[in-house]
Amino acid sequence: MLSLAIERVPTGIPGLDELLRGGFPKGAAILVTGIPGCAKTIFALQYIVNGALKYGDRGVFITVEQSVDQLHRQFMEFGHDIKKLQEDGRIAVFSLEIKPELGEDFLMRITSEEFKSAMLEFGAKRIAIDPLNLVMQFSADYGGERRGIQRLITTYKKLGCTTIFTHERSKGGLEPEFGVQDFIVDGIIYLQLIKVRGAMGERESLFERRLSILKMRETDHGQGIYRFEIEKDGIHVYHGVFLRTDQ
Ligand SMILES: Nc1ncnc2c1ncn2[C@@H]1O[C@H](COP(=O)(O)OP(=O)(O)OP(=O)(O)O)[C@@H](O)[C@H]1O
Ligand SMILES: [Mg+2]
Fold this sequence. Notes:
Layout: E1 8-9, H1 16-19, E2 24-25, E3 29-34, H2 40-55, E4 58-63, H3 68-77, H4 82-87, E5 91-95, H5 106-109, H6 113-122, E6 124-130, H7 133-137, H8 145-158, E7 162-168, H9 180-184, E8 187-197, E9 205-216, E10 225-231, E11 234-241
Parallel strand pairs: 3-7, 3-8, 4-5, 4-6, 6-7
Antiparallel strand pairs: 1-2, 8-9, 9-10, 10-11
């Protein structure tokens, strides 16, 4: 019988795959976006680690912001040894140092023939780039931001990978301003860190974390603004839709 169901790539993040009706559509390019500290890096690395541990998918995490040691310490807190996963060949984590003054180009590094061969040889099914902003900075030589990001997305789709790009947004809020990256990607997960007034009494405030799926081509998805927490094993998403707008 002909099945119209699309193939899914589950994130393994508790509470999220139900909202995605099973996971990201296979081959999709997903933006995970928000202000500093909203948990973009944790989200992206959790996607790669879960891929290996829960679904047997090999994944590659590429950062230009943090050292592998720093990510290792962060994930040991969550009970996952990313160095061991790397040694066992189940994931690969790279912290790239780009030296533009020596003519190095980030976009070239992560779309080169050498890079593609390495991904195919490793058998990568998942890729995470943290953050996309640097790609955008290097896009001038490739016809501008739109062409640069498109080149990256097309390269990874051809490799058969389902990819997360984190994206640093300087302004949050209920209605973020959108840029070229938002229109090109297949899906957007928007993470918010919101100060809730009086939540701990009349005077005190606290930060709450919220997640929304702003876009996900090819699939139905949860339309709410959902609370999430960073717990002892990483991100958990809860389904009580937020109605409060007192940010
Ligand atoms: N073990 C932990 N338990 C609970 N919360 C944690 C834990 N580790 C980190 N956090 C929270 O996660 C935040 C950092 O998350 P992450 O590094 O993913 O943010 P980010 O969005 O990538 O930030 P940036 O834009 O600066 O790179 C910290 O500011 C802290 O609030
Ligand atoms: Mg980060």
